[in-house]
UniProtKB/TrEMBL annotation:
Highest taxon listed in the record's lineage: Bacteria
Subcellular location: Cell outer membrane
The organism of origin for this protein: Christiangramia aestuarii
Signal keyword on record: yes
Family: Belongs to the SusD family.
Sequence ranges assigned to domain RagB/SusD in this UniProt record: 346-473
InterPro entries (alphabetical): SusD-like_N (IPR033985), SusD_RagB_dom (IPR012944), TPR-like_helical_dom_sf (IPR011990)
Protein name per UniProt: RagB/SusD family nutrient uptake outer membrane protein
SUPFAM superfamilies in the cross-refs: TPR-like
Keyword flag Membrane: yes
GO cellular component terms listed in the entry, alphabetical order: cell outer membrane
Domain called SusD-like N-terminal: residue spans: 33-229
Alphabetically ordered keywords of this record: Cell outer membrane, Membrane, Signal
């Protein structure tokens, strides 16, 4: 497939339905709605939006690959090549014809295509507030998907590129005949377009229409995405204001130590801001997160001893003995298996069927984003208060000082196995640490190396002369 085809197919393959029931509105189902028949009601665009949510859940996006790349391209995990999955990715040695480079790119643009169908729909019948709320969700998903593309394909962390470096095409219309072969926007342009989309999302959405389920984007979710983007680009005032709105909303809580592990197989817990729905209907089988982390036919992605060593005894996120043959619940996130492997057994634990919702944004991330923004805007004392909310609820020691290093350490502890580590290293201009030369195979690329971005898929640059390839590929 080619780039422009992804944008067309993303909507044309939305299917053949002409009406929807309550069951149809389940975001875990791939709903099909052809724009060639009619998109004329609020229900129609809600069905298409649910298709976007479903696409986010698939294994080539949040269902596995997006998260695992953020771990194996760091100092958190390595690939043991048990099923030869994530071997090249862990080496950070992809090329423009690597399968994951194409499928991740394609999947995110199909989500964007679905969002653009919703955003561009006109003359709809139905309650205006409901229509606006649906469109607001689409704007937020469009911003998030473009930012996710930028994180892996943008050149902002290569050779000192910064915001003026090549980003990704920011696509704002479905089947735009005047721009079928878009060029890449700069990283700074992608950031600003995403901010604009998120501001539009918040303006269109109504707090009273936020779904009680965390499986849908809400006003708080849109603000959290904006805070995350601002944190990545060091726009500290924007990060502060956006994260402050979320943490002061009264809608979420930091999980207690006893609540922490159960939350990862509990839908819409008190810390969830936005999560991807999974049910037995969606079951990806061996292609889910649990099966790439745990022992079994896959089990390729294993925690590095360096990660395990950062946890104190008693920290629920740390290490305890774990034997899957006993069928007992894990005592901590990381299980030391009888074979000596350190495995993520506490996050995304269900394997048969795989039905754990996938956290995209947790409240704890926003607490740490807020702490970092407070520190960077000169309020270290308040930053310490917020930083310590996490270890105090995990069985770990509090910090005596809010420093950048301490906040990054706590982010590594709290968000391990959720896909954040590579991006934290990149945004803070760090080399990729290589503490284990035997288990790690990427060799620790220095910050600025071409390895800090994935290649643009060959199938895309081959058909689109306006799409420049990334450095080093």
């Amino acid at each position: 497939m080619k780039f422009n085809k992804y944008l067309i197919i993303s909507a044309l393959s939305l299917g053949l339905m002409t009406s929807c029931s309550e069951e149809d509105l389940d975001p875990t189902l791939a709903q099909d709605k052809s724009i060639e028949t009619s998109v004329s009601t609020a229900g129609d665009i809600e069905v298409i939006l649910n298709g976007a949510y479903n696409r986010m859940s698939l294994s080539d996006y949040y269902g596995r690959d997006f998260i695992i790349l953020g771990e194996v391209m760091s100092d958190n995990t390595y690939s043991n090549a048990n099923s030869n999955r994530f071997v090249i990715e862990a080496q950070m040695d992809l090329n423009s014809e690597s399968g994951i480079a194409e499928t991740l790119w394609a999947r995110m643009y199909t989500v964007i295509g679905s969002a653009n169908v919703v955003i561009g729909a006109e003359g709809l019948s139905g309650d205006e507030d409901r229509i606006n709320h649906i469109k607001g969700q689409a704007y937020a998903l469009r911003a998030l998907a473009h930012f996710n593309l930028l994180q892996f394909y943008g050149q902002q962390n290569v050779s000192g590129g910064g915001e003026s470096a090549l980003g990704v095409p920011y696509v704002t219309a479905f089947r735009d005949n005047d721009n079928l072969f878009p060029a890449r926007n700069t990283a700074g342009e992608v950031k600003q377009f995403a901010y604009d989309d998120l501001d539009m999302a918040v303006s269109l959405m109504s707090e009273g229409l936020n779904a009680p389920s965390k499986e849908y984007m809400t006003t708080w979710g849109a603000l959290a995405v904006k805070a995350r983007i601002a944190n990545y680009f060091e726009d500290w005032q924007i990060s502060l204001e956006s994260s402050e709105a979320v943490v002061n909303s009264g809608q979420f809580d930091v999980l207690s130590r006893d609540e922490f592990l159960p939350a990862f197989d509990t839908d819409s817990d008190v810390s969830a801001i936005f999560e991807i729905a999974n049910t037995p209907t969606d079951n990806p089988g061996i292609n889910g997160l649990a099966n790439i982390y745990q022992t079994g036919s896959y089990g390729d992605v294993v925690a590095l001893p360096n990660l395990a060593a950062i946890y104190e005894d008693g920290d629920i996120r740390g290490v305890s003995d774990y034997d899957p043959a006993t069928a007992l619940a894990p005592e901590t996130v990381i299980g030391l298996h009888p074979d000596g492997a350190l495995r993520n057994v506490g996050k995304f634990p269900s394997t048969a069927p795989y039905e754990d919702n996938i956290a995209v944004i947790r409240y704890e991330e926003m607490v740490l984003v807020y702490a970092e923004a407070l520190l960077e805007t000169g309020n270290a004392a308040e930053a310490l208060t917020w930083l310590n909310m996490i270890p105090e609820n995990r069985g770990a020691s509090s910090y005596s000082e809010a420093t950048k290093d301490n906040i990054l350490l706590e982010r590594r502890k709290e968000l391990a196995f959720e896909g954040f580590r590579f991006h934290d290293l990149a945004r803070t201009e760090m080399d990729i640490p290589a503490p284990d030369s035997i288990l790690q195979t990427h060799g620790g690329p220095a910050y600025g190396s071409y390895n800090f971005a994935l290649p643009i898929p060959f199938a895309e640059v081959d058909v689109n002369a306006n799409l420049e390839q990334n450095e080093g590929y």
